[in-house]
Amino acid sequence: MATLEFLGAIRQVTGSCYLIQTDSARVLLECGLIQGENHSRSIEQGIFGFDAKSIDAVIISHAHLDHSGLLPRLIREGYRGEIFVTTPTADLLDIMLKDAAFLQQKDNEWENRRRARAGEQPVEPLYELQDVEQVLAQLNPLGYAERVDVLAGVELCYRDAGHIIGSAIVEIWISESGATRKLVFSGDLGNNCSPLLRDPEVVAEADMLLLESTYGDRDHRLMENTIDEFSAILDTAMQKGGNVYIPSFAVGRTQDLLYRLGRFHREGRLPQQKIFLDSPMATSVSAVYLKYSKLYNHDDPEFNQSIKNGWNSWLPMLTFTRSTEESMALNMISGGAIIIAGSGMCTGGRIRHHLKHNLWNNKNHLVFVGFQARGTTGRAIVDGAQKINLMGNEIAVRAQVHTLGGFSAHAGQQQLLQWAGNFKQKPTLYLVHGELEKMLVLQKQFMAVHNWYANIPEPGERVQI
Q: Using only C-alpha atoms, what is the Rg of the chain?
């Protein structure tokens, strides 16, 4: 009998990882990095709870690092099988994993300098660029609705999840002893208010469902209200003479922001005439979004026509800053600018430098447009920290802080309930990708709305499929 072992994103949001075992195969579903608190799993203790060489195939739902970020480490530990992804995900991984390898190298150099001063032994990085190159060589890109054999007795099909470009709901069929069982993993389900992407596809049949629960405790604010609040923030910042700083994820959230700002511009609601995308990775990802514009929802013909000529055709005052020198120069701008920079949770990237130089100024505005995991700098600010530590400096939080939940790329509570309600017969349901208190709220809602018990697995728990 096939089994599923819950190895990651269990009672927490990041670090997605599940192990499927059949009589003849071991398939890894997701290989994600833990972000936020407890993110630094010790190499000495072992990154994985299994031998990487024992895995026969890997299936990835989408490119975000909490779903894919440990693939190079899996390669480093000896995995040499296929890695199944959607075609856009393959392009995104080329960008994101190389960037992650660069950051790993820098962090490792810093850590080993600290260890040398303390008389401790050096440590190796999680992975290096050569491991990323091997990941890319092992990718098997697929289109949506393309049902393929992964291994003998294991079939796969991807459905559009509407979360980021290339994101997928994963359908897996497992055949043993003349019987077939179907596992569905929601991946990260998109918010159906996304301005660019399609709504998550409906899946109607499964024997087991793994459902994300990032926002299992609440619904997002209505998009119309979110847009009006965003517009008001921009107006206030302009009147007060400050800048607007937006920590944003390079994939998905940034492109949604560029769309919204372009729409403001065309409606005469954009007072700022200086907008900077200060993220080389987000700039590269934005080019991937242009490449796969056929996957857009096509609700805005004006945008679809304009974007054919590039992002600047849609948002003329947009500047892409690639070099470090260009990024540093932004801190000389005293007001009237919008600066979008990674990382989305303020755990790294150029946003940390901008916060160091500007968070203490009460004329400025800091706008969060996505989920902030526990243990991240962004979460500390959202939770009301008066001071934060950035690169060894204590910085006062005096800028105006805003959280725009409506921009989330995740489905809210009612959207999760509605999407899951499309199954003709209730599969065995497990909640993953959520903090425990949010899972408990969603668990009660499933019982109240659907009379459907939602299991909340323990880390390391193994169940039959």
A: 22
SS3 318: strand
Domains 3-218+409-464 and 223-407 share a fold: no
The answer to whether 133 and 75 are in contact (CB under 8 A) is: no
- Residue type at 339? I
The amino acid present at 266, given as its one-letter code, is R
CB contact at 8 A, 384 and 416: no
- Bridging pattern class, strands 168-176 and 154-160: antiparallel
**Predicted pLDDT at 38:** 46
CATH architecture of 3-218+409-464: 4-Layer Sandwich (3.60)
Domain locations along the chain: 3-218+409-464, 223-407
pLDDT on residue 249: 86
Determine the CATH number of domain 223-407.
3.40.50.10890
Per-residue tokens: 226 = 């979110």
pTM: predicted TM-score of the whole model, two decimal places: 0.90
Which tokens sit at 222?
């209505």
CB atoms within 10 A of CB 192: 18
pLDDT per position as a tens digit, 170-196: 999 999 988 999 999 999 999 988 889
Residues of the chain above pLDDT 70, percent: 98
Alpha-carbon distance of 198 to 295, in angstroms, equals: 7
- Beta-carbon contacts of 358 under 8 Å, excluding residues fewer than 6 positions away, are 243, 245, 331, 364, 399
Instruction: Give the Cα separation of 12 and 118 in Å (integer).
Output: 33
d(CA 200, CA 452): 21
Q: Which residues contact 146 (CB under 8 A, 6 or more apart)?
A: 157, 158
Separation between Cα atoms, residue 76 and residue 436, nearest integer Å: 32
CA gap 67, 70 in Å, rounded: 8
